[in-house]
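for the writeup, i need someone to sanity check this before i put it in the appendix. the sequnce is what the collaborator sent (i think, or maybe the updated version? ugh). structure was predicted straight from it, no edits. if anything looks off just tell me and ill rerun, i have time this weekend
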Amino acid sequence: MPPAHIDPHLLAARELLRPPAVRACSRGLEPFSRSWFEELEIKRYGPHGGWVRRVLEFTRHSNESLLMLNPGIGSDALQYQRHNTQVTVCVTPSDHPEIIRRNFDLRGLSLRLVHTTHDAGLPFDRGTFDLAYLNLLYTPPANLASQVAELYRILKPGGKIFVLAPARFDAGFWQHLVLPFRRWYRPPVHFTDAPRYSARGLRRVLAPFAEHRTAKRHLRRSELPHLWRFAPVSVLERFMGRVLILRAFKPVTAALEHLTIDSAA
């Protein structure tokens, strides 16, 4: 069983992109049981999170290799694995690797877990992976630029990266701007305390990559002022969604850099 100090409610709230004050599971399921993991998986990709499947392209990368950083409890890793993506999850002790391992074991699935530390580089050769997944929603690295450089290094030329980050210009930002007095009687509630990014700022961080595509998603109607709730949430989330997603590629021309480095070696 997982250590007693791990708070299942906090992990569940993070997996569902909810503030910790919101109750995640209403059926009183045993934490870290198969039913608990399955319910969180269903809710993560439910009506509010339907965008996750589309944006992260779970079904489009069969027989490709993927490196994941900050994987939560492993729900996204499961989706890739089920569609024949070769998943490697790189974890630090703060990622609770025993929880991720238990999630896979209860489904009868194998998982390649690689342990590292916050200040260490990624223990992989240059050009090892086709895909990379970086989650900045809760525990961003101390040196993001260094981690981005490492992900660039381990990706093959033409490889793709997915980045999830808290959006700076989300619903809370626009409510504060348009309705500044609302915070006096209903303070904004954020699902994370991690640094927030604008699309431009995140593209700047991922500058070594090319063909950047950004989008904002994830918004619940209950998070909006009553006057705004008449509009379709699917439209509003594109302007004030809580999660900023960036997809980009390592340039194919990076293959020349690899040849130069190999020749010099």
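The chain has one domain: 58-264. DSSP finds eleven helices and seven strands in the chain.
thx in advance!!
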